[in-house]
Amino acid sequence: MHLAVVTAYPPGRRSLNEYGLHLSRVLADKPEVGHMTILADRLPDGQEAADAPNVRRVWDFNDPLSALRVLLALRRARPDAVIFNLQMASFGDRRVPAALGLLTPALARAFGTPSVTLLHNLFETVDLDRAGFGGNALKVKVTRAFGRLFTRALLGSNLVATTLPRYVKLLRDEYGAQNVFLAPHGTFQLPLPPQPFPEVPTVMTFGKFGTYKRVEVLIEAHRELLTRDPRARLVIAGSDTPNAPGYLAGVQAQFADVPNITFTGYVAEEDVPRVFSDCTVVAFPYNATTGSSGVLHQAGEFGRGAVMPNIGDLADLIQDEGYRAEFFEPEDPQSLADALWRVLSDPRQAAALGDANWRVASSLPLSDVADWYLLHIEDLTGTAPGPSPRAQEAQA
């Protein structure tokens, strides 16, 4: 079959870019997929990419016309089906382009391309203030109402996949959706045996920061850890979320007096293994959650334990998939320092958490999840395994 994937894509730095890269990679490796077309976000001026010929950069973040651009690209590509790799703000951090972009899967179906939407989060489970979409009470109420409207629009896809069982239940119970299935996040690569822990106790946090992921509490916890072990290191790996430009630069200036902190900036895909392998434990300084945590799956992939608040989607991953962590009270530096110390001060505990998470990650690689997508798509389209006539035509 000829399959298209609409996604943010490296070296662009938008949310879900790494997931889009790996999902399209494992799908393209399947014998059922004769041809893959990736409809990706355009890069900022001055940034270039050595994209493969099947990567077409056709839409822009915060462009109200993104839906039209994707539909035109689908019409030209003529795939047998399209997978949309989305979260609620994939098409913009402004309300109008974000909302209009979410109409694309239903429009693709209406114009004749079977569509599957992988939805990484739901409006109903997102703290809008902490995710950067807050405001006065009326604005939040209106945003919630439109959120429900656009969730229903996304359910206009032929199929909707979500990464957590709670999301499947919510969509079935509150929206009466019968076209929803569970597709776990999965691990990007089949994990190799973990690297040894570094000699210097090192805490690492990874992601896009400034809204619900805030590092002030982690730096205060690090300050406390230095009184227990002056060698302790903190690595803040990642960049600002689009909703909080300049956040990390401000934090770096505010805490310039605290030693042994490294701000890496954006971490390129090829550097991710080193960043995880060079730490003892991965910290999650979150005060809310917005979907299944890719960072927790990566911590498992590289055999590292986690220290996190027992909230929302993080709690779901512990319960549903079997990951292990030390817990702390959200926004409490002392509680976070104590939880980190339980790992840093006890090599056996660090190893036990890392080994448990590595085993979970090893049990469900993204390649296996891709098989589940293809089974649903073949059932949806009646496509037999192997290249379809449309795929052969597209490659001609």
UniProtKB/TrEMBL annotation:
GO molecular function: glycosyltransferase activity
Keyword annotations of the record: Transferase
The protein, known as: Glycosyl transferase group 1
SUPFAM superfamilies: UDP-Glycosyltransferase/glycogen phosphorylase
Organism, as annotated: Deinococcus grandis
This protein's record includes keyword Signal: no
Keyword Transferase: yes
Classification lineage: Bacteria, Thermotogati, Deinococcota, Deinococci, Deinococcales
GO biological process: lipopolysaccharide biosynthetic process
